[in-house]
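Lab notes, practical 5.
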Amino acid sequence: MDLALAVLLLALFSPVMLLIGVMVKLTSAGPVLYRQQRLGLGGRPFWLYKFRTMRNNAEAETGPVWAVRNDPRQTALGNLLRRLSLDELPQLINVVRGEMSLVGPRPERPYFVRQFAEALPDYARRHEVLPGLTGWAQVHGYRGNTSIARRLEYDLDYVAHWSLGLDLWILLWTPCEILFAHDAG
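Output from the prediction step:
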């Protein structure tokens, strides 16, 4: 189901993705796509793709830094793309490649996974399923700069109670959460 839906969504959104790519290139220096290492199923690393929303090499001086709402490193276009989650559309490629699912816990960077796992002992259980473009925590408002502990509760609830029906519900609920989100970062 993930593969079929991801291919369909890529086809449907390809004109939008092309337009976003052109706009990113015209409005800021640097590559259109940004890739970042994340941890997936079983804690295995993979390259996650996004449209670049921050200035080129935004973390060159600081190292890994958590993005915040209205982050000063964001481009003007990047702020809009992040608010509407349009920067995430290239992750459909990750779904086609089998590195992600449409629904599951959001993948995180190894640097932050180590920190979260030290503070929250059950954190590694999130890696028992494929990470997703959207998830149970996200549709409950836990995305961007929100409580990691609360996000983990929803992620573990998802891992324990996964079903096709739950995935379909999350997929249907996601656009509403994106449109009315209070903290998309």
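Observations recorded by the TA: Residues 2-180 form one domain. The helical segments are 2-27, 76-83, 91-96, 110-119, 136-139, 148-161, 164-180.
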